[in-house]
Design a protein that fits this description.
It contains 19 helices and twelve strands. It has 673 residues and is α+β, with helices and mostly antiparallel strands. The chain starts with a helix and ends with a helix.
Length: 673
């Protein structure tokens, strides 16, 4: 690429300064310059031809006009000579005085015309001799030697004709003078011997001049034709040379543009191939040169950015591979885009071999089905969620807590799912031991607590007589705390049943609007005491879920009760329900509390975990949300939270939808059909 640009720059320097200056012009002018030159030649060529033809035509017109004037004068001289001779003869033969007077008048008129024609011929010849032209005052093209010789002979004949005419007129005047004095015999002799030979000589000279003028005109026409042909040939030659020059300029500019565009294209292809270190060597200052310099700058900046990106990627890869957790990114089709060293060691493959494969190709179909189902839940919920996952469902393989979260583009579209999976096998074992202990303790505590609650209830009911006021107050406190302890034990036992898979659900059609209204009614007194408004928002009253009514009420009551605890005085809590696609329903509890941070959201549904809500904290066991999560998952649904610190929180439950049964009329019609 660099060699190509170097050759281009060398060719440009060898082409000369004019080409460099042309290349510095804007590209539109480089393209328009040959077009303008060709158009200029196309306009000037016929114009120059017309000028040459016009000049030749003008010379021929001048020659024709001069020929016409000369032939007219010669004809007039000949006719006037003959008429004058006839009038002289009539004058000599006539003896009547009146006839002679009339003839003298006619002779004077003819003699005046003859003198005028002779003077014009003499003047024309004299002017032509002084100017060196062919008998006319108009400029003529350069004549050939033959034409010049003919012009000189014609001027000599014109001088001879003029002198003979003058001699003729003088001799005629003497003849007329002898005739007037009565010397007729002498007049006849002078007329026969002098006048008549002069007249014959003038006629011969005029005839010779006439023939010479015709030859002169033909020669002038031939000369004008040759001159016109030479001029047209010169114009054609000049136009051809100019066309060749225009073609050469066009080809040169086209070659220069082609080379520079080729260098630009080769540089762009080199950049596209990833070789950003090459440079496009185009030194022109036009648009192509500007694009080349901008591409060089862009390649330099991209090279720096790629270097920084590789450095950053190396650091990120070091951090990701150094982590003890399994970190990965998958696209929406389930293919891995990123996998760290821990995942590669788990499946026995190289991290680069995992990229592009699916869960089925890496873990097998059984585990892939569970992983893909969890990925779909994250994509559909569009929020982070946690799942307990196993590579193999054999009860022996490690248990991983996978925190999965959707990845969004700048336009808000999900393009993949990221995940961080931590090995919690030991923690699960500890929790199992703790759960076994808690379950055993709960079973052991349940009977004595029931007995204590019965005894305290008898005391509180005054079965053994009235109690003092202080004793009665202490008994009531004991009743409240015993009931609370019993509820805690029951919750722990229910959670244990759910985790052990021993919870029995009575699935039925549960109208959404009914359980929402029932939940709000059960907590109306608590909301009134906290001065928090409860709002139900179920636009479609025909929506129904498929689930256990009592357990769903327990979930909504727990979520709504937590929202009331964190809501400020004068706040509002909304319990809404709506369809979430054709097969799912979405119940959501939205409060105006302090919100929950991202870090707390990841642990919110664990057992015994409580969010520190500051002034809004009202205490609790930390088992409510864990129980809600277990019940909802037992229904095949999903529970989650969406929140930002300072902007409240929304706890949502996603449940399978129960479609409306067909109406009787519809069923009958279908059966009939």
């Amino acid at each position: 690429m660099g060699a190509m640009g170097h050759r281009l720059a060398t060719d440009q320097r060898r082409a000369g300064g004019w080409r460099c200056r042309v290349n510095d012009l804007p590209l539109r002018w480089q393209i328009l310059l040959p077009i303008a030159l060709v158009l200029l030649l196309g306009v000037l060529s016929p114009f120059a031809s017309l000028l040459a033809l016009h000049a030749s035509s003008r010379g021929f017109r001048h020659a024709g006009a001069r020929h016409w004037r000369l032939t007219t004068d010669l004809t007039a001289i000949q006719s006037d000579h003959l008429r004058h001779r006839l009038l002289v003869t009539d004058f000599l033969t006539s003896a009547h005085p009146q006839a002679r007077a009339r003839i003298e008048q006619q002779l004077a008129a003819v003699e005046g015309r003859l003198r005028a024609a002779t003077s014009r011929s003499l003047e024309s010849s004299q002017v032509a001799a002084e100017l060196g032209i062919g008998g006319d005052a108009s400029p003529q093209p350069r004549s050939s030697p033959a034409l010049t010789q003919r012009s000189a002979g014609r001027r000599a004949d014109s001088f001879r004709l003029g002198r003979i005419s003058q001699r003729y007129l003088r001799a005629t005047a003497r003849v007329l003078g002898l005739a007037r004095s009565g010397r007729q015999q002498e007049a006849h002799v002078l007329s026969t011997r002098v006048v008549q030979p002069l007249l014959l000589q003038a006629s011969q000279i005029a005839t010779a001049m006439f023939h010479a003028e015709n030859e002169q005109l033909a020669a002038r026409h031939a000369e004008a034709t040759r001159v016109a042909s030479r001029r047209l040939t010169a114009v054609v030659v000049i136009c051809c040379l100019a066309a060749v020059a225009a073609l050469a300029l066009t080809l040169g500019l086209a070659r220069s543009l082609t080379r520079r565009l080729g260098a630009l294209l080769a540089g762009a292809q080199t950049f596209a191939a990833g070789t950003l270190s090459s440079v496009i060597d185009v030194t022109a200052r036009d648009e192509i040169g500007t694009i080349a310099r901008q591409l060089n700058d862009m390649a330099s900046r991209l090279s720096e950015l790629l270097s920084e990106l590789r450095t950053s990627e190396g650091r990120l890869r070091s951090v990701v591979d150094s982590s003890e957790a399994i970190i990965y990114i998958k696209d929406t089709a389930g293919r891995y885009l990123l996998a760290n060293r821990q995942l590669a060691e788990l499946v026995g493959l190289d991290a680069r071999e995992i990229v592009g494969r699916t869960d089925g190709e890496v873990f097998g179909s059984a585990a892939a089905a569970a992983f893909s189902a969890n990925d779909r839940l994250v994509i559909e919920a569009r929020c982070a969620m946690e799942f307990e996952e196993r590579v193999r469902d054999d009860g022996v393989s490690p248990v991983y807590l996978s925190a999965k979260f959707p990845l969004f583009t700048e336009r808000g579209e999900i393009y993949g799912v990221g995940g961080i999976s931590t090995d919690i096998t030991q923690r699960k074992q500890v929790e199992q031991l703790k759960s076994d202990f808690v379950a055993a303790a709960s079973h052991d505590l349940r009977t004595p607590l029931t007995s204590i609650r019965g005894a305290i209830g008898l005391l509180d009911g005054a079965v053994f007589g009235p109690l003092p006021d202080k004793a009665r107050e202490l008994v009531r406190i004991a009743v409240v705390n015993t009931d609370r302890l019993i509820r805690l034990v029951n919750t722990m036992l229910d959670l244990e049943k759910i985790e052990a898979g021993q919870l029995e659900l009575r699935l039925e059609r549960v109208p959404l609007s009914e359980i929402v209204d029932e939940t709000i009614a059960s907590l109306a007194a608590l909301a009134a005491g906290s001065r928090v408004a409860l709002v139900a928002d179920v636009p479609d009253t025909k929506l129904a879920a498929r689930g256990d009514r009592d357990h769903l009420l327990r979930v909504l009551t727990n979520l709504l009760g937590n929202a009331l605890k964190v809501s400020p005085t004068g706040g509002r809590v909304t319990l809404s329900g709506a369809a979430d696609g054709p097969d799912w329903l979405r119940l959501a509890v939205t409060d105006q509390g302090p919100g929950i941070g991202k870090r707390a959201q990841a642990q919110l549904f664990r057992k015994y975990y409580q969010v520190q809500a500051g002034a809004h904290s009202k205490g609790g066991t930390g088992l409510g949300l864990a129980l809600c999560k277990a019940i909802v998952e037992q229904h095949g649904g999903v529970v989650g939270v969406q929140s930002e610190v300072g902007r409240g929180a929304t706890f949502f439950v996603r449940l399978p939808r129960e479609h409306d049964p067909p109406s009787p009329s519809t069923t009958t019609a279908t059966t009939t059909t």
